[in-house]
Design a protein that fits this description.
- The chain has twelve helices and 41 strands.
- The protein is globular and about 65 Å long.
- The strands form nine sheets. It has a ten-stranded mixed beta sheet, with helices on both faces.
- The chain is α+β, with helices and mostly antiparallel strands.
Length: 722
């Protein structure tokens, strides 16, 4: 029985027309059936008519009131409000780049709007990292105004910056170039494009700037963005991301990638005549999983030449300074942008579809995530995820010897996935963004491991959660690591609840990082909970074999690792075993669905963008190619391997009260997956609530929706775990 109240009724409206009602639904277990009294039977038709008229009037009211109505969750406690401020008030730093000569660092930081409200705008700053002088703002926007300005790229001689800005027309980025000399003047607009642009790079000779360009893009690039709704005749849409070139002095734009090809990452050859890139033909979001390495002629155009294809995913191609080799990372990867695997090299002059690639980090017990060549082309400096920490190391091409340069319980790198630094041309100076559970993100620069703090933009933020410590335990795969975040004002004399937070991916890792508005679970310590962040098999941080250990075994060994982590926390800390919860988003949402169908140890679950039925999911999502790498074949050829890991097939076991949330335009984990699970819980009388957020993709863009998820999650756990 679905109980719809005024407090839960919602409606989408355009010009007063109701498009679809009741997307915020609460349910409770049906009461036991009993013989109905005669008077109630006689009034059945009247009551039904009254309810219909009542609901119709409410929908009409909601429509004319304007848009979507979502009743607010319970008001958070003062401690949770402070945590929300620490998370939502952080200034994100999306990029930090050292100049080629190692003298200056440029970065991009987010800006807030009126009264501290989130804003789409960002600002670019440049500073001499040694002098401590005040940074210089670089802007195409007029003085006193702000715009979305990002994606900085240094010229080879360190005297100019290229960047994107929408100062001319809000929402449409254009390429600008500015001189950093005192007499440089205002930035010059180089392009007049219409569409999505990203990733600018200067050619080594300084004459050309390249960038990625989706002409007339209907939405932001990447699978995390909200999908464009289908209507009319449904076809597989292909919006090619081209590799575009423009002269630094201006002039016409030139695309050098062929029609139908989607380019992901790229790097220039040292002679400025060629470009290496990962690319694929067809749907860009889906075909990232089968991308190859291509060589493009930057002078004559022509058909690009594939020099490497793989049974794995490929990322971060880098051309060596001597022009002889191309390095890249290859491994099992579940998400575009979440790069991890082993480091490979392939000769730049390899014939088409070469098998000459060489793994130079075999059996490394870490996950390289980004790479840079040394100036002499003899070593590769790489950032790695190792045991839940950030590391920097180098590997020699001839000997294969690996030297550790730095390891820290923090995340190195700007906003996004993985870890990374920016190196000067000689490899001696680096810039990065450092952050942890105890330190909000700031820009640092200097010799590796001996950085100087450059920014203090988040100086007023302080942790509103307890300390973090690394936790290790053992299962049949060996040692497993995770992070444990303590509740505020922890006392060993008290008993606490614990909530497990499973990361997305699965090819990713829980690391020490300052919580942002997407980290709804980080408010739980302020509400008095321990939070366990496990890195089970399938995660990054313990080598490629560990990452591949969940292939054809979703919900098997990975779930075993998670539950062993729960037992390890229970054995060492005052945690009440009757107050356990679980949550996660994407793969973490799947694992939360799986958990509540496999065990009754969890007494509450918050499920974000989950996957309930791998068989139906295969036909619903927009990026199904990743699944064959994890399940061995497509669902039509081998439905059994998918079925054994589908939570919906074990739904009769579920008893855990579950809050389910998802964006209505999520292409990675489509809403029907959440509908299926919610409907099944309703059928079997399990307490549940289901909230769909309008115009949201896999990653939420509206801060109000992020806050709503957070407040509902805290309230849900408080309701069932206190």
């Amino acid at each position: 029985r679905i109980l719809i109240s005024f407090a839960t009724l919602r409606a989408f409206c355009i010009d007063g027309r109701v498009l679809r009602p009741s997307l915020g639904l609460r349910t409770r277990a049906p009461r036991s059936s009993a013989p109905q009294k005669k008077g109630i039977v006689k009034m059945k038709s009247f009551v039904r008519l009254a309810i219909i008229l009542f609901l119709t009037s409410l929908v009409s009211c909601a429509a004319h009131a304007g848009g979507v109505y979502l009743p607010p969750p319970p008001k958070p406690s003062p401690a949770v409000e402070r945590a929300i401020h620490a998370m939502f008030g952080v200034h994100e730093i999306s990029q930090a780049v050292i100049s080629p000569d190692g003298q200056r660092v440029a970065w991009v930081e987010s800006l807030t709007g009126k009264n501290g409200a989130p804003s789409p705008n960002s600002a670019i700053y440049v500073a001499d990292w040694k002098s401590g002088a005040a940074p210089q703002r670089i802007a195409a926007a007029p003085a006193g105004t702000f715009a979305a300005e990002r994606d900085v790229a240094w010229s080879p001689d360190s005297t100019h910056l290229a960047f994107f800005s929408d100062a001319g027309h809000p929402g449409q980025l254009q390429l600008y170039v500015t001189s950093l000399s005192a007499a440089g003047g205002a930035p010059r607009q180089i392009t007049h494009v219409k569409g999505d642009v990203s990733s600018p790079l200067w050619s080594p000779d300084g004459k050309t700037i390249s960038f990625l360009y989706i002409e007339n893009a209907p939405r932001a690039a990447g699978p995390l963005a909200a999908e464009t709704p289908d209507e009319g005749i449904v076809r597989t849409a292909t919006y090619e991301q081209s590799l575009a070139l423009v002269n630094t002095a201006g002039g016409p734009l030139r695309k050098i990638s062929p029609a139908g090809m989607y380019v992901y990452e790229y790097d220039w050859a040292p002679d400025s005549k060629k470009i290496v890139a990962t690319a694929a033909y067809g749907n860009g979001d889906d075909n990232w999983y089968i991308a190859q390495i291509y060589i493009f002629d930057a002078v004559k155009n022509g058909t690009p030449r594939s020099i490497y294809s793989s049974h794995m995913q490929i990322g971060a191609p880098k051309w060596s300074p001597d022009g002889k080799n191309i390095a890249f990372i290859a491994g099992l990867m579940s998400d575009e942008g979440s790069i991890g695997g082993d480091i490979y090299t392939v000769p730049a002059n390899s014939p088409s579809q070469s098998s000459n690639a060489h793994d130079i980090t075999p059996k490394i017990k870490a996950t390289p995530s980004s790479i840079e060549w040394s100036g002499d082309s003899q070593n590769i400096v790489f950032c790695e995820i190792v045991d839940g920490k950030s590391g920097i190391a180098s590997v020699n091409l001839d000997s294969g010897a690996i030297s550790t340069l730095y390891t820290g319980a923090e995340r190195l790198g700007a906003a996004g996935f993985g870890v990374g630094i920016s190196l000067s041309r000689d490899g001696k100076i680096a810039a990065t963004v450092r952050q942890s559970f105890s330190q909000p993100p700031e820009v640092w620069a200097g010799p590796v491991g001996k950085w100087t703090q450059i920014t203090h933009i988040n100086r007023d933020l302080h942790p509103e959660w307890g300390k973090a410590e690394s936790l290790h335990w053992h299962t049949d795969i060996g040692e497993v690591q995770g992070w444990l975040l303590y509740p505020v004002d922890y006392s060993p004399a008290k008993k606490y609840g614990l909530v497990v937070t499973v990361h997305g991916g699965p090819a990713a890792a829980n690391m020490q990082s300052w919580p942002s508005r997407w980290s709804y679970y980080a408010a739980l310590p302020a509400a008095g909970y321990f939070v366990l962040f496990p890195n089970p098999r399938g995660s990054y941080g313990a080598g490629e074999a560990f990452t591949r250990a969940n292939v054809k075994d979703f919900g098997g060994g990975d779930f075993k690792d998670i539950m062993a982590g729960v037992d390890a926390a229970l054995a060492s800390l005052p945690i009440d075993p009757a107050r356990l919860g679980i949550t996660g988003w994407s793969y973490g949402g799947y694992m939360s669905m799986w958990a509540v169908t496999q065990t009754h140890r969890f007494h509450a679950a918050v499920i974000g963008a989950g996957l309930s039925d791998w068989l139906s999911y295969y036909g619903e999502n927009r990026i199904d190619k990743w699944m064959t790498f994890y399940f061995g074949d497509n669902v039509y050829n081998d439905p059994g391997v998918y079925a054994k890991s589908a939570p919906i097939n074990f739904i009769k076991n579920a008893k855990t009260p579950s809050l389910i949330v998802v964006g209505d335009s999520d292409g990675e984990c489509p809403p029907p997956q959440s509908y299926e699970f919610w409907h099944a819980l309703v059928t079997f009388g399990v307490p549940t609530e289901f909230v769909i957020y309008p115009h949201e993709g896999h990653g939420f863009s509206n801060p109000a929706h992020s806050r709503d998820v957070l407040e509902r999650a805290v309230a849900w756990f408080n309701q069932y775990l206190k």
